[in-house]
Design brief:
This protein is α+β, with helices and mostly antiparallel strands and about 350 residues long. The chain has two domains: about 230 residues, P-loop containing nucleotide triphosphate hydrolases (Rossmann fold, 3-Layer(aba) Sandwich); about 100 residues, Nucleic acid-binding proteins (OB fold (Dihydrolipoamide Acetyltransferase, E2P)), CATH 2.40.50.140. It is built from nine helices and 21 strands. The chain has a six-stranded mixed sheet with strand order 6-7-8-3-9-10, sandwiched between helices. Helix 3 packs across helix 4, helix 3 runs parallel beside helix 5 and helix 4 packs across helix 5. It is elongated, with a radius of gyration of 25 Å. The structure holds adenosine-5'-diphosphate and magnesium ion (MG). The site of magnesium ion has 2 residues, from helix 1.
């Protein structure tokens, strides 16, 4: 089922009459059968967006379509959604079996079919042998599996997950992330996955939407977004270690690093900009390379396969992650380069990237 948001907007007005625009004119189409990650810092409007899709919050403006169905005014229970939250919200006094069965109790599903579906869902999420247990007898990850089975048992048109892994410890989070991806693939259900964790979103999503203050920053496949960020916010939000960003002048198309000219960007006018280069996009330059800058090494760390070099560009501390055999422990300076398309020039005022299109 394709999911389409059109100019979706939510404005909260508090008691003193001040408005918060939690979601600001969001228009995206989520292809049928895909998993879209809704990503951004705390308070950027992720849950508000999800709750509007679920029907738990009424949009101030805009529309929501499930396929050709305009569901904007439809009650939550009529939309055909499955919801999973951070706190699993299972019924503690009911067994796993009853918890999963619960949503079917008030539906016209024949008894035999209902039992069959509960078993199928329990197997799908990997808790088929725990149907007689109570939630307290399960680990956090297992409880979240029950919550997912319960959300899926009604065969919803859309699955909505709000930070479903945030309560789990780091290892379980990694494992459940892969599980959710597998379950989503096997069921082919259109899914919106909310998270503030960029790595989680990148690893699980077919496409991601990044929000900031309720405004869509970019909507694309994770790797594409990582490599061609639309603006400085997205560039900084994705990646660990984070992108290097620092001020630099551009003169006659060349970026000025420590008074040296670097590369040529004919499309960029003379002026002052924010430059972004990810640590791993630096390389130690070949001897005959034209585009390179010489920098003084401040510190050097070996991190397994790679070596992290610290140095300064235009007075800022910069990090480069390079092949460990390309620098020696006693090197005082190094010549670095990067691919042209991996150097981003951002407008200082708007943050928009201006050398990629
Ligand atoms: N019921 C509400 N009343 C007033 N403001 C709200 C309400 N719910 C959320 N907000 C505000 O809307 C913005 C977005 O919140 P939310 O969607 O919960 O963010 P996220 O899920 O990305 O952390 C925040 O500024 C938050 O304080
Ligand atoms: Mg939230």
């Amino acid at each position: 089922m394709e999911l389409r948001l059109e100019n979706l907007t939510k404005i909260f007005t508090n008691k003193t009459g001040t408005d918060t625009t939690a979601v600001d004119d969001l228009s995206i189409t989520i292809d049928s059968g895909t998993l879209v990650g809704l990503l951004g810092p705390s308070g950027c409007g992720k849950s508000t967006t999800l709750f509007m899709i679920a029907g738990l919050l009424k949009p101030t403006r805009g529309k929501i379509f499930f396929g050709e169905d305009d569901v904007t005014k439809l009650a939550p229970e009529k939309r055909g959604i499955g919801l999973v939250f951070q706190n699993y919200a299972l019924y503690p006094h009911m067994t796993v079996y009853k918890n999963i069965m619960f949503p079917l109790e008030n539906m016209d599903v024949p008894r035999d079919e209902a039992i069959q579906r509960v078993k199928e869902m329990a197997d799908l999420v990997g808790i088929g042998t725990m149907l007689d247990r109570k939630p307290a007898q399960l680990s956090g990850g297992q409880q979240q599996r029950v919550a997912i089975a319960r959300a899926l048992v009604k065969k919803p048109r859309v699955l909505l997950l709000d930070e479903p892994l945030s309560n789990l410890d780091a290892r379980l989070r990694l494992q459940m992330r892969e599980e959710i991806k597998r379950i989503q693939r096997e069921t082919g259900i259109t899914t919106v996955f909310v998270t503030h964790d960029q790595e989680e979103a990148m690893s699980i999503s077919d496409k991601m939407v990044v929000l900031n203050f309720g405004v869509e920053q970019q909507y694309s496949a994770p790797q594409e977004m990582y490599n061609t960020p639309a603006n400085l916010f997205v560039a900084k939000f994705l990646g660990n270690p984070p992108i290097n960003s620092f001020e630099a002048d551009v003169k006659d198309g060349a970026v000025i690093f420590n008074d040296q000219k670097f590369m040529q960007f004919k499309e960029v006018k003379d002026g002052s900009y924010i430059i972004g280069i990810r640590p791993e996009h630096f390389r130690v330059a070949e001897k005959d390379s034209k585009d390179k800058i010489k920098v003084d090494i401040k510190e050097i760390f070996h991190v397994g396969r790679d070596t992290m070099i610290h140095f300064e560009l235009n007075g800022q501390n910069i990090r480069a992650l390079v092949d460990s055999d390309s620098v020696g422990d006693n090197d005082k300076s190094v010549e670095l380069t990067c691919k042209r398309k991996r150097l981003y020039v951002f407008d200082k005022d708007t943050g928009k990237v201006i050398n990629h299109g």
